[in-house]
Write a structure and sequence with these properties.
mainly alpha; 72 residues; single chain
Length: 72
């Protein structure tokens, strides 16, 4: 996944906004994989997963808002 991020950031001729969105998606995917496997959330009960999942949309809203402010 890191190779994909580096290729996306430096080699692909796409727009800046598209790069940002794709890199954000890859970062979220990587964080989810780390949480599921290294934090062992994959093998936990649903309630513990829910505690981890609930703040994610709020963090996404915060990140998107900050990015939109920087692009103005």
């Amino acid at each position: 996944m890191t190779v994909a991020e580096v290729l996306l950031a430096f080699e692909l001729p796409v727009g800046r906004n598209t790069k940002l969105i794709l890199l954000l998606i890859l970062a979220i995917w990587k964080a989810l994989l780390v949480a599921l496997f290294f934090m062992h959330l994959k093998f936990e009960r649903w309630r513990l997963r829910l505690i981890f999942i609930v703040p994610l949309p709020l963090a996404a809203i915060l990140v998107i808002t900050v990015i939109m402010e920087k692009l103005r």
